[in-house]
Amino acid sequence: MTDSASIPTAHRALARSLRRWRRGRGIPLKRMAAELGFSMATIHAWEQGRRFPAGRHLDLLSAYTGIPVCAFFYPGRNPCDCAARLTRPRPGARL
Ligand SMILES: [Zn+2]
Question: What pTM does this model have?
Answer without folding.
Answer: 0.81
